[in-house]
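Exercise (ungraded).
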Amino acid sequence: MNRVETGVAGRAQPLAGEPLARACVVGASGFAGALAAAILWSHPRVSLEAVTARTEAGRRLDDLYPRHRVPLVLETFEPQRLAAAADVALVSYPHGAAAEVVAELRGLDMRVVDLSADFRLADPALHERWYGPRGAPQLAREAVFGLTELHRQEVAGAGLVANPGCYSTAAILALAPLAREGLIADAVVDAKSGVSGAGRAATDRTHFVSVDENVSAYAVEGHRHAPEVDQELAALGFAGRVTFVPHLLPLDQGLLASCYVTPTRELGGAEVAALFADFYAGEPFIEPAAEPPGVRDVRDTNLCRIHATTAPDGRVLVFAAIDNLWKGAAGQAVQNLNVMLDADEAEGLR
Amino acid sequence: MNRVETGVAGRAQPLAGEPLARACVVGASGFAGALAAAILWSHPRVSLEAVTARTEAGRRLDDLYPRHRVPLVLETFEPQRLAAAADVALVSYPHGAAAEVVAELRGLDMRVVDLSADFRLADPALHERWYGPRGAPQLAREAVFGLTELHRQEVAGAGLVANPGCYSTAAILALAPLAREGLIADAVVDAKSGVSGAGRAATDRTHFVSVDENVSAYAVEGHRHAPEVDQELAALGFAGRVTFVPHLLPLDQGLLASCYVTPTRELGGAEVAALFADFYAGEPFIEPAAEPPGVRDVRDTNLCRIHATTAPDGRVLVFAAIDNLWKGAAGQAVQNLNVMLDADEAEGLR
Amino acid sequence: MNRVETGVAGRAQPLAGEPLARACVVGASGFAGALAAAILWSHPRVSLEAVTARTEAGRRLDDLYPRHRVPLVLETFEPQRLAAAADVALVSYPHGAAAEVVAELRGLDMRVVDLSADFRLADPALHERWYGPRGAPQLAREAVFGLTELHRQEVAGAGLVANPGCYSTAAILALAPLAREGLIADAVVDAKSGVSGAGRAATDRTHFVSVDENVSAYAVEGHRHAPEVDQELAALGFAGRVTFVPHLLPLDQGLLASCYVTPTRELGGAEVAALFADFYAGEPFIEPAAEPPGVRDVRDTNLCRIHATTAPDGRVLVFAAIDNLWKGAAGQAVQNLNVMLDADEAEGLR
Amino acid sequence: MNRVETGVAGRAQPLAGEPLARACVVGASGFAGALAAAILWSHPRVSLEAVTARTEAGRRLDDLYPRHRVPLVLETFEPQRLAAAADVALVSYPHGAAAEVVAELRGLDMRVVDLSADFRLADPALHERWYGPRGAPQLAREAVFGLTELHRQEVAGAGLVANPGCYSTAAILALAPLAREGLIADAVVDAKSGVSGAGRAATDRTHFVSVDENVSAYAVEGHRHAPEVDQELAALGFAGRVTFVPHLLPLDQGLLASCYVTPTRELGGAEVAALFADFYAGEPFIEPAAEPPGVRDVRDTNLCRIHATTAPDGRVLVFAAIDNLWKGAAGQAVQNLNVMLDADEAEGLR
């Protein structure tokens, strides 16, 4: 049988010429970090040089996630070593734990995409309210919010990209076209996520018997992704109310944001559809859907499929479906990395 | 082994004395009809005398649904025979097909609970818009909308009860307390249903591979249960807009209505909770939930668990969870039957 | 709304006369213990007087398991108090932890059904090999192996019943008729279980993302339920090899044992079917199935559905489906209790 | 947004130089055919020129399967047109319907991989017994059974490859190393498949509510894939009994073959493992697994993960996990195509 040997020699695809960058994934034992490693492992323009983990160091990544087939051994976090081996880092640590390692890597001049929430919220007070005191606060100013479709130019030149949350990604993509045009009077986002969004930790909430044949809302008093949505919509000119409620569903990967917008003026369905088509013209990962999209249609892709229309009662309805681990985390992180490296934005993500 | 013999002799529970009524289920091969038969089969005060089916006549019901253990043979529909054997009928035919058999049974003086939509909408024009011309229109006037908690008294004396739709049951129960107090300015209902709600027919939409690892909205241009909600809320004094969008989930039984209400005045969370507690005081099947309820918590029960609160942004949130086949169909049908027979409302439903 | 008050006053069904026994459930916070409490709560001939838990004491059982609707508060384990309140106890503690509390309760003259493995294996050496030293070894002799269909008479008079494992229940029921007739030369049991069989503890193995869209074998070097199967088949006269391999499936409740028997002589399919029909004649919970049974057909029932036949190649095939929490645990415990109390064996289990 | 235009211009990956072949997929609307098209659409050495379908002609393939992102329009089957546009064809028609179109394409000198069963069984009598009279019987002689690992050389030169069934692929890969060494005295294969293996047709059996929370055996009187297993094991020298029973599981993609082998002589676990490692040395898609493999670990890959060991009772256990749509159908079809084209066998399948 063919157990690929450890190390870069065994990579899935030959690189297409000299790599644009050497990369590492810090925190590759969780769902998002492991996927980021897998995507980079077969990326034609980036070489994956190292993967680290806090608790699983010493294990091979393909023992933890056989289907990803990344035959690297998880290392402990040694910033000097990483800086010697790689130019860029994708950091996938829990909120609160990421800031410190990001600071160390930035101090060694590595460019970083941070998948945690540690640098997503620009307003320090807002960050503190939702997450407590921010680590490495000096970095907050340089961080760019990595919703690629909205911040492509800043991402291109960034040293530190704060990759958005999964819920925020879907909600912002669903509401941005309306927000920019001043068309939102009021909005409700009923979001539905698969269980991988809750992470790899085994808890009562992620127990199979809790989730199976079940659906329920949670965090109705306020979810941490909501201020990301508010921040981005405010930047587009909308400062009103967005009620956001997440739900947990019996599936592993997939996230649907069902958005109910009271428009500031009457909007026909065709006008809404045209507005979205125009806003996202040329975007490689935003796909219009003739019907309300299912998350199965974007599974294991970096796509966001959007159906925007007007209900007979005048409410504007927008449904945005993503894979929470791809466009909602690791996929978008690589998309941002591609932009940072001036590569084709879809490299490694097709 | 112990294959129970066909016929009433084999019933699960001995009756507690003389039955209050002899019952039949017309259309017992579908999910809701079969469950209605199963509930009646072990009902302590009602004897189930016959079950019929349009396409499976001649088969034993416990061959079709082994776990229900109802050892009766499905018969063809012969109204005279049924009228001789039974006093009351639960009719579980598809929309459009029910009206005629209901008319025949009513003509033979049987009391009927109709699980179809044929007599739910009082307004003939509204019915025609959503379902086409109504069969047996002369019966529409006598039909009582069987949302038990709202129409208990009319149900008690009714000859014909129109059992509500599954979505409408959850949505109306979630909004009624606010509607009666004039507290709704605007509302969104994002509803989520398991696949049994789509019925027993094998279609692309009910194929396992379509539903598994998926979630999507459907009928965004308008769902047939929405006018039931409007009708009932109007009767309580609310005539405004309720945007209703259903979603299909990868689970078999269970329905969650997530309701987002813009209130007419500021409402605290405690006030909302108290309002609901008061409205549903003493109701045997309405249960307050300290947290947003999951559908797993009501599986195979006639319960509706409701969590009502106010979000920090002032939106009133109401989450109502039912089992779509129980409180959303067969369970509520038996609940109505109990009321019609002046029995304990929870008989056979514990 | 109608939150049932704590205590026996709120029980689901009125008792049918004077109870045959007052019962308690020790360890009611796990899946099996909670179900045992729920079954007893609506048992017409037994009154449930107390429930205890090691880690959730002080919580209401209907907060933990809303759909079971048992409004009792979980107490700490105080044997004297239990002995004053109840005559019989169902103990649902983890293996190893049960023996001690069983001994205390037996010392207070309570009759006990123990759902753990602590007294299932009669041979002390065998017990020690699989579980380590046995607690309260003096009780092993009086313990009766509670596979009801095989040991009804001993159960009737027992002070201590060792309720069988879920896998063993299905496998023994599938093989016993052949074993007794000396018809097994060799056997393979490929068993498939839902996740509730792995218990309520949140582990990597019970994480939704581990189980969903997955199936795999485990414990291939030997599973603890295998010696129970060997012990019971030996008692029926078969001392040969039964290879037993369990698999974990993406469902919550249900267990299928697929058994492949090399017979000692040629056996026609009709002969096999007749043998099983004869062996289980009159059994209230053993049901012949004309086709290989699905676990869905026994969900939330105490049934074991069995299809036994001969393959064209001469192999005898037996498929036995149970609900692992019912016939595989709590249901059979109540079945045994009914036998101990000389009640109708199916009381409370229909 | 970026709706890729119809046609070859929009392909996912640029070809790596001149393609080795131009391909078409005949019958691309089913699960396996659509996946074959998706794999070829991003294959670096093969250009996909056309896709056809019997019932969905005129629709875009990415409307039917959005996540595959193949922007081609399904055409009706016109062999001359296909022969002009392409050199090779993958045919994914139902059994019985494939033979005729394969004959037409072969008559036009196209090389064909046929995913149906029409040419898998070399023995005409055996084919007739399981499938009825064979269409285009003259082609049976030239057909090569496309279990790549066993028939690589014949596949390389073949004009017509009969791609194996999903069950047979897993079972043969699991048993071949033992069969070749004369180590099998007797074998049981308990196979477990996801629902996509049953095809895209909506039936009672593929209804979500039939499959969800269920597992059952089927075709216990004999399954059509069994003679494929027998044929291939016979070619390796084993002519004894293999009892094969398939089971349907609540998951979409994935197939596990659990094999229980009575060996002809005592075999230690290490010896078994070494035998498999040796047999499959250098195979790019066969991966040894240290633990019994889960189907989740091979999802959306062409891998077969195998764990082979000896139970304490002497039985040899082999567990082989594949994705039924990949290694069990479309993936292996492309693997065979790669061999036929003398390309790297893993091209397009990483």
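Further reading is listed at the end of the chapter. For now, observe: The two ends of chain A are 29 Å apart (CA to CA). DSSP finds eleven helices and 14 strands in chain A.
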